[in-house]
């Protein structure tokens, strides 16, 4: 595998809950471990099995706010009025500078903030929307996960409608009707973006 170009754009991956962003990303990284996915920072407590630096960078609220004030995040958000989340800027910049294919998986609001702040930082962004084959299929997947209450699922589906309506804001749409196919499409985008030839 040959890498011909340095400093491709940052790939910002977004899509509604239940669309399978993480599943597509895992399938991609299984075949292409050279792809780097940004690890977010959060002030929430680790869940059982979560590893610091692998799932998230876990930190205190004071530490997070100090880093935010120092401009160390590409974007930040307060989720459900409680925990802070953010994308550490330095590792993103370092991986892009090395020519490493770099992905940021984030929600719609975060993607919009990244587009705004990236311009000021001189970072170029390629925004990718992962879409379900249909809204009915998205409902089926969310119900099939069995990880949420009826009320939570209803709220997620309302959010998903808003997220789906924002698809036109993105540079590229990949329909996740087949995980391996979607991962291949994502890799084709990355290979083109970073000048990688097999």
TrEMBL record:
<keyword id="KW-0067">ATP-binding</keyword>
<dbReference type="Pfam" id="PF00625">
    <property type="entry name" value="Guanylate_kin"/>
</dbReference>
<comment type="similarity">
    <text>Belongs to the guanylate kinase family.</text>
</comment>
<comment type="function">
    <text>Essential for recycling GMP and indirectly, cGMP.</text>
</comment>
<keyword id="KW-0418">Kinase</keyword>
<dbReference type="InterPro" id="IPR020590">
    <property type="entry name" value="Guanylate_kinase_CS"/>
</dbReference>
<dbReference type="InterPro" id="IPR008144">
    <property type="entry name" value="Guanylate_kin-like_dom"/>
</dbReference>
<dbReference type="InterPro" id="IPR008145">
    <property type="entry name" value="GK/Ca_channel_bsu"/>
</dbReference>
<dbReference type="GO" id="GO:0004385">
    <property type="term" value="F:GMP kinase activity"/>
</dbReference>
<feature type="domain" description="Guanylate kinase-like">
    <location>
        <begin position="8"/>
        <end position="191"/>
    </location>
</feature>
<keyword id="KW-0963">Cytoplasm</keyword>
<keyword id="KW-0547">Nucleotide-binding</keyword>
<protein>
    <recommendedName>
        <fullName>Guanylate kinase</fullName>
        <ecNumber>2.7.4.8</ecNumber>
    </recommendedName>
</protein>
<dbReference type="InterPro" id="IPR017665">
    <property type="entry name" value="Guanylate_kinase"/>
</dbReference>
<keyword id="KW-0808">Transferase</keyword>
<feature type="binding site">
    <location>
        <begin position="15"/>
        <end position="22"/>
    </location>
    <ligand>
        <name>ATP</name>
    </ligand>
</feature>
